[in-house]
Amino acid sequence: MRLGLLTLYGVWPATASPEHDIALISPRPVLLLHGSADSQIPVEHAYVLQEAGRQNVELQIFEGAEHLVFRGDGTGSEDVSFRQAVLDFLARSLPKSQ
Q1: What span, in angstroms and rounded, lies between the C-alpha atoms of 44 and 38?
Q2: Is residue 32 within 8 Å of 5, Cβ to Cβ?
Q3: Which of 9, 31, 44, 71 could be 89's S-S partner, Cβ–Cβ 3.0 to 4.6 Å?
């Protein structure tokens, strides 16, 4: 399994670290979206990534949201808020065409 990950994706699980690697993305902007009620990945992890990525990382916490934000047909209030956060980030972050 591990060798497969290395061969296919160039990732060795024992050394892969989002906390380390997020700083390598700079200067490109990063948007982190996390639910405050995530039962799979504690919200504290999002704050650790934000700190590690410094000024190029924007973090948005969705109060009460679980691990999977989208529910049903995508029209719920959490779905709309999540989608709007992504669109706003892209509008701020993508280069403006001349």
Answers
A1: 10
A2: no
A3: 31
Tens-digit pLDDT profile for residues 27-59: 999 999 999 999 999 999 999 999 999 999 999
The Cα 79–Cα 41 span in angstroms is 19
Which two structure tokens, joined as six digits, stand for 8?
């296919």
Tokens of 5: 């990950």
Bridge partners of 59?
32
Q: Long-range contacts: 54-57, Cβ < 8 Å, 24+?
A: 54/23, 54/26, 56/25, 56/26, 56/27, 56/28, 56/29, 56/30, 57/22, 57/29, 57/30, 57/31, 57/32
DSSP state of 57: E
Backbone phi and psi for residue 28, each to the nearest 5 degrees, phi listed first = -70, 140
The phi and psi torsions of 60 (rounded to 5 degrees) equal -130, 125
